[in-house]
Design brief:
The complex is a heterodimer of chains A (270) and B (295). Chain A is an alpha/beta fold and 270 residues long. Chain B is globular and about 50 Å long. Classes of the chains: A alpha/beta (270), B alpha/beta (295).
Chain lengths: 270, 295
């Protein structure tokens, strides 16, 4: 796998033909049945969730919905969820726990939505709750970043036993544009920010943030969505098979340790 | 002067901080204004003699804005005298993504703020009740969360879980520390995991949200308390005001993201005056059956 620059990958994941969950779900799962609503406030179209069979195994699927054109994107708010989206995800994750189904999260979001209503309904609380609850969810969780993995909005679906990134997918604390505009006061330095920030799939593997990189079709997933979907299925199948056989207490201990060890610090003598 | 101006001031302050953290060439440090004799409230613009203001625990006598404290000031008004024992005080940041001049900035702030990082953790008693405590200091890189903040908070919860102790965190933060890239985002998950275990051990966790608590800290440990207290007029939210304004291009209500706004919307349990904080904390510890330490 030759290394493509982070800036080039930004272009790749923004390609308007890049497959989204709407393409992948029918190629990877069978009988996907969508379930709606958080039972408190409403249904957030930025996160789609439901039940499906994966290679004959019942699973719960939770996914950010990116559209391929402006109309689709308007409907799903450009995959930027409100609190009710995260609460729907949590409700269905808890349901998966009850029925001992693995949870599969498909991540593709610039981040959580920033707006008055989102703040009023507790955007921070909704994300925080997911982090805590997913950490102790007694069923396997596999998360896959398909394109953009932006900030806390992505992390709310990425507390898992195994995180995978598509080869060209990116995962970052803030968008490169946001990074450039906040730290350098100049959003046009996006490319430089992307290179500095360490956001590629290889970076994630090196930093211990992800476990696997899923290869895409030559030149990017858009060139052959079907073969990319097959790669996702292969990686997912291996992980799900292994995780469902793991004792739940061991699973939770490993999940905790996976995040526990991330961080770089040292000690000074005072 | 309306509340709108105060947010401008807050915004300006954030701007200020951002400029300072810029890896582009820095202009020389502005000279200190000599003799800080007056306090000008960023919320209501009223002025007061610094001495009076400090005697009033840095609360604006005019509008009740509870201004920012250093970790030392917070500790002094919270813990029983001489009861504090610090944990991991010598832990320092590294530079996981090789951000230009990050180490330099950290070491400068370590001297200025008399702490190696944006959170000081340890154990103390509060009106005789033993508690594990974390105090974030917004003077240190706007108390953003990187590896050290994440690790210290996590260790704090692990310590408390093992010994069945309550945890109290005084939160303040600009969010995840961007200079540490994705590693800082992972601290949100790490700390939340440690809280989950403390929670399963059925121990009490109290968060006190102080000015300002935002971003990745709001979206992780600051929002996970069994009891969530806020200080009057504190700015508390997920996204920054400027970001929201740029996204939705609408006027934002004046009290938007204030402690009072959160109380109204059901996201904090109470707003508590600094003067009553110790009393409220000890009462909460008592009602959860923690016992007073023997004298």
């Amino acid at each position: 796998m030759s290394r493509i620059s982070a800036a080039k990958r930004l272009e790749l994941i923004r390609n308007k033909n890049r497959p989204t969950v709407n393409d992948y779900i029918p190629m990877i799962f069978h009988n996907f049945t969508q379930l709606h609503g958080d039972r408190y406030y409403g249904d957030d179209p930025a996160i789609m969730a439901g039940l499906a069979f994966f290679m004959g195994i019942p699973v719960t699927v939770i996914a950010h919905v990116k559209g391929r054109d402006i109309d689709e994107n308007k409907r799903s708010n450009f995959a930027m969820p409100h609190p009710e989206g995260y609460r729907k995800a949590l409700r269905l994750a808890k349901q998966a726990e009850k029925f001992r189904r693995p949870v599969v999260c498909l991540i593709d979001t610039p981040g959580a939505f920033c707006g008055i209503e989102a703040e009023k309904r507790g955007q921070g609380e909704a994300i925080a709750k997911n982090l805590m609850e997913f950490m102790s969810l007694r069923t396997p969780i596999v998360s896959i970043v398909l394109g953009e993995g932006g900030s806390g909005g992505a992390l709310a679906l990425a507390v898992c036993d195994e995180l995978m990134l598509l080869e060209n997918a990116l995962y970052s604390v803030i968008s490169p544009r946001g990074f450039a505009s906040i730290l350098w006061k100049d959003p046009t330095l996006e490319t430089q920010a992307a290179e500095l920030m360490k956001i590629t799939s290889e970076d994630m593997l090196e930093l211990g943030v992800c476990e696997k990189i899923i290869p895409e079709a030559e030149g990017g997933a858009h060139n052959d969505p079907q073969s990319t979907a097959e790669n996702i299925s292969d990686f997912l199948f291996e992980a799900v098979q292994r995780l469902i056989k793991t004792d739940v207490d061991v699973l939770l201990k490993n999940r905790y340790e996976k995040f526990r060890k991330i961080g770089m610090f040292s000690f000074v003598h005072e | 002067m309306g509340l709108e101006d105060l947010f401008k001031t807050v915004r300006d302050r954030f701007k200020d901080k951002d400029e300072k953290s810029s890896p582009l060439p820095e202009t020389h440090k502005k000279p200190e204004i000599p003799g800080n004799l007056l306090f000008k409230c960023p919320r209501c613009r009223a002025t007061a003699y610094m001495e009076e203001f400090e005697k009033n625990r840095k609360v604006c006598a005019h509008c009740d804005y509870h201004s920012r404290l250093t970790w030392r000031e917070r500790l002094d008004i919270t813990a029983d005298k001489g009861s504090f024992r610090e944990f991991d005080g010598d832990m320092v940041s590294m530079n996981p993504i090789g951000f230009p001049d990050y180490e330099k900035k950290i070491s400068r702030l370590s001297c200025e703020c008399k702490t190696n990082e944006a959170v000081v953790t340890g154990e103390c008693t509060i009106q005789g009740y033993r508690a594990v405590i974390g105090i974030m200091d917004s003077h240190f890189m706007m108390a953003s969360m990187g590896s050290v903040v994440g690790e210290k908070i996590t260790r704090l919860f692990e310590y408390a879980t093992e010994r069945k102790l309550p945890v109290i965190i005084f939160a303040a933060s600009g969010g995840a520390r961007m200079q540490e890239g994705i590693i800082s985002l992972m601290q949100m998950a790490k700390t939340s995991g440690a809280i989950a275990r403390h929670n399963e051990a059925r121990q009490l966790y109290i968060t006190v949200l102080t000015d300002p608590t935002t971003g990745g800290v709001t979206a992780s440990f600051a929002s996970l308390g069994d009891v969530i207290i806020a200080e009057p007029k504190a700015l508390i939210g997920f996204a920054g005001r400027r970001v929201i304004q740029d996204t939705i291009k609408q006027h934002l209500p004046d009290d938007f993201q204030s402690a009072e706004f959160l109380l109204e919307n059901g996201f904090v349990d109470m707003i508590t005056d600094r003067k009553r904080m110790r009393k409220i904390l000890s009462r909460l510890l008592k009602v959860h059956n923690y016992r007073k330490q023997e004298e």
